[in-house]
Design brief:
Radius of gyration: 22 Å
Largest sheet: 2 strands, antiparallel
CATH topology of the largest domain: Sodium/glucose cotransporter
Distance between the termini: 65 Å
Strand order of the largest sheet: 1-2
CATH class of the largest domain: Mainly Alpha
Subcellular location: Cell membrane
Keywords: Cell membrane, Ion transport, Membrane, Sodium, Sodium transport, Transmembrane, Transmembrane helix, Transport
Helix content: over 70%
Membrane topology: Multi-pass membrane protein
Protein name: Na+/proline symporter
Mean pLDDT: 86
Order of helices and strands: HHHHHHHHHHHHHHHHHHHEHHE
Number of strands: 2
InterPro entries: Na/Glc_symporter_sf, Na/solute_symporter, Sodium:Solute_Symporter_SSF
Length: 475
């Protein structure tokens, strides 16, 4: 019951922030926050929105099988954010875009524009559903099952709560609620680490020594080119994942486009990009500390799924009731901050890109509600189909669904050729299918195993497809 009370209190705070920030709400405020957001608020809130509840659950457990090699990808993230700040943001601000996919209509044509927006809606709906599934799963497993509440009721109530506090202010509300949620998330993370240190009777210096001297603190892998943890695979995948999941993603860019000018947006982008390495270092360090904790209690470390390392120690109550509360606050803050922005950006993309009716407030309200219902359906579908680590599930989805976006934008930015626009939808569908075929075939017939570099392969195939159906121009 303490988890339910915590979530109710947390939601009431969000509802209060929504009420304060949604006064005089309009479509301009819902979509752009009137371009008046302080860059430092956007940057801080974006950390929580980018990390999500999946990081809270999955990243600590990654040390079981991959040590701290995930930080190699985080280093790639930093370079990716710099590319976005100085390559993509100047274009978006110069064109004064509400939806970033409008750029593709001017550069490639209507079919490319609509196809890209459609792929974003599919991609964001599915990946956001995976992220939000985390908090629903934890509530169901550790609290609501004992009251015989069906899972679909849990999902429906939580999604409708998000719809309720975002339905008026939209992106303007999210700039402030996400900052609050990021603060809650980091306070919860630090308190959990502090409690684990206390359970192990370790000082701050002792904790650093124990972590750095442990085998699982290994970060870099240079010697095995076939491994999915090889540095260059991880680093380059990190660069392209950030460019696609942030720079080519309406959800993430919509908040950045609420800053008053380009320089503010660039400061925001670089600031929260740099925060990724220390933030994920904390999560991975917590994973090593939890391994020590399990050993101290003579408990078997969960190996069936790496997510269990965090779940059993925190939500499972091994560290006591205070940690259950901290974990609940952290996981709900992280999940809500990613789901609420996804719901808002999906509404924006459908109204602006698909229907071309950015000024229709009645349409926006209906679309916002319908997107919430679709969100519920996608979460239920993922619960039925999921069989992998949650973070891997997201990056696998991204590799197949965001690859065409990477190809479209790369073609538009780095060539001056005119594409035969009517073929764009077929190319965007064929590229992920060909990627899947190559992945299965190469895995079956060789020792090579594709990792997150599938995203780059998918983007290259889309680029080559567009190149094949294009012609030179002097314009």
């Amino acid at each position: 019951m303490i988890i339910v009370i915590t979530i109710v209190a947390y939601f009431l705070v969000l509802l209060g922030l929504s009420w304060l920030t949604s006064k005089g709400a309009s479509n301009e405020k819902f979509f752009k926050a009137n371009r008046k957001s302080p860059w430092y608020m956007v940057a801080f809130g974006m950390i929580g929105a980018s990390i999500s509840g999946v990081t809270f659950v999955s990243v600590p457990g990654m040390v079981l099988n991959n040590n701290m090699s995930y930080l190699q990808m985080c280093l790639g993230f930093v370079l990716g954010y710099v590319v976005i700040a100085y390559v993509l943001l100047p274009i978006y601000y110069k064109l004064n875009l509400t939806s970033i996919y409008t750029y593709l209509e001017d550069r490639l044509g209507k079919y490319s524009y609509k196809t890209s927006a459609s792929f974003f809606i599919l991609s964001k709906m599915s990946s956001a559903a995976v992220k939000f599934y985390v908090v629903c799963m934890i509530l169901q497993r550790f609290v609501l099952d004992q009251y015989h509440i069906p899972f679909f009721v849990t999902v429906s109530v939580l999604v409708l709560l998000i719809w309720l506090y975002t339905r008026k202010g939209g992106i303007c509300t999210l700039v402030y609620t996400d900052s609050f949620q990021t603060l809650c998330m980091f306070i919860a993370l630090l308190l959990i680490i502090y409690k684990v240190m206390g359970a192990l009777d370790l000082s701050f210096i002792d904790t650093i020594h124990r972590i750095t001297n442990d085998y699982h603190s290994q970060i870099f892998v240079f010697d095995d080119w076939l491994s999915g943890q090889n540095f260059w695979k991880q680093f380059l995948s990190g660069v392209f994942i950030v460019i696609v999941m942030t720079g080519l993603d309406q959800d993430m860019m919509q908040k950045n486009l609420t800053c008053k000018d380009l320089r503010s947006a660039q400061k925001d982008m670089c600031s929260y990009g740099l925060a990724f390495v220390p933030a994920n270092l904390l999560f991975l360090s917590l994973g090593i500390l939890l391994m020590f904790f399990y050993a101290q209690l003579h408990l078997i470390i969960p190996t069936a799924t790496s997510d269990e390392l965090m779940l059993k120690a925190t939500a499972g109550g091994l560290l006591g009731t205070p940690v259950v509360v901290f974990f609940t606050i952290g996981i709900v803050a992280a999940c809500f901050s990613s789901a609420d922005s996804a719901l808002t950006s999906l509404t924006t993309s459908y109204c602006v890109d698909i229907k071309n009716r950015a000024d229709d407030e009645k349409l926006r309200k209906w679309v916002h509600f319908i997107m919430a219902l679709c969100f519920i359906v996608f979460i239920l579908l993922f619960r039925w189909a999921n069989s992998t680590n949650l973070l891997d599930a997201i990056y696998t989805l991204v590799s197949y669904t965001y690859g065409p976006l990477l190809g479209f934008f790369a073609f538009g930015l780095f060539t001056k050729r005119v594409v035969n626009d009517k073929f764009s939808p077929f190319i965007a569908i064929a590229s992920p299918l060909l990627c899947f075929f190559l992945d299965v075939s190469i895995t079956n017939f060789t020792s090579y195993k594709f990792g997150y570099e599938l995203l780059m392969l998918n983007g290259i195939l889309t680029f080559l497809g567009l190149l094949s159906f294009s012609k030179n121009t002097r314009k």
